[in-house]
């Protein structure tokens, strides 16, 4: 399945705008500046672990749904799917509150807002259903 490069560009632009709002600080604040998102490279991988503050999660409107088994396929909301510049499909898993990691998937088909996967995380895995494009932008450093 090929990705529309315009969709990726719009998603990255949206992520940059959304994350720039996460960086807003109160001028009266005297406490230490806390980054809304930290990106930690995973050893032996090109992937990263993203950790967001509760406020960043709220501002980005991140929502999570569980991947479901559908016959031999895995079903996830299509809104969970992001594509890289090479057309590879990914989604973000949510292994712990405020923590997100990109996981490679293979999309077989889409119907009625659901993506059916032949490869991806196990059924029951929490996946980001709203805000995946923003997380991808944060992982790539868009908006810094």
Which percent band covers the strand fraction? 35-45%
Uncertain segments are: none
Mean pLDDT: 85
Distance linking N and C termini: 31 Å
**SS-based class:** alpha+beta
Q: What proportion of the residues is helical, as a percent range? A: 10-25%
Radius of gyration over alpha carbons? 16 Å
Q: Can you tell me the number of structural domains?
A: 1
At the fold tier of CATH, the topology name is: conserved putative lor/sdh protein from methanococcus maripaludis s2 fold
Number of helices: 3
Shape: globular
Spatial order of strands in the largest sheet: 1-2-8-7-6
Give a count of the beta strands, DSSP E runs of length 2 or more. Answer: 11
- Under CATH at level 1, the class stands as Mainly Beta
Could you describe the largest sheet, including whether it forms a barrel? 5 strands, antiparallel
SSE pattern: HEEHEEEEEEEEEH
CATH architecture label name = Beta Barrel
Signal peptide: 1-23
Protein name: DUF192 domain-containing protein
Keywords: Signal
Description:
By secondary structure, this protein is of the alpha+beta class. It has one domain: Beta Barrel (conserved putative lor/sdh protein from methanococcus maripaludis s2 fold). It has helices at 5-22, 54-60, 132-140, and strands spanning 37-41, 48-52, 63-66, 68-70, 73-77, 82-83, 89-96, 99-104, 106-111, 114-119, 126-130. The chain has a five-stranded antiparallel sheet with strand order 1-2-8-7-6. Strands 4-5-10-9 form a four-stranded antiparallel sheet, with no helix packed on it. Strand 7 and strand 8 (99-104) form a beta hairpin. Helix 1 crosses helix 2 (54-60). The longest helix has 18 residues, at 5-22. The chain is globular. The mean pLDDT is 85.
């Amino acid at each position: 399945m090929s990705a529309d490069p315009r969709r990726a560009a719009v998603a990255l632009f949206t992520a940059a705008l959304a994350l720039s709002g996460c960086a807003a600080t109160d001028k009266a604040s005297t406490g230490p500046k806390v980054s809304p998102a930290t990106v930690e490279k995973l050893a032996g991988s090109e992937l990263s672990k993203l950790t967001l503050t509760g406020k960043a999660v709220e501002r980005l409107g991140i929502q999570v749904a569980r991947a479901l088994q559908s016959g031999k396929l895995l079903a996830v909301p299509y809104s969970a799917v992001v594509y890289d510049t090479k057309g590879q499909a990914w989604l973000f898993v949510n292994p712990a509150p405020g923590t997100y990691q990109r996981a490679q998937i293979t999309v077989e088909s889409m119907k009625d807002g659901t993506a059916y996967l032949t490869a991806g995380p196990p059924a029951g895995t929490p996946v980001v259903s709203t805000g995946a494009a923003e997380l991808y932008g944060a992982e790539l450093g868009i908006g810094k």
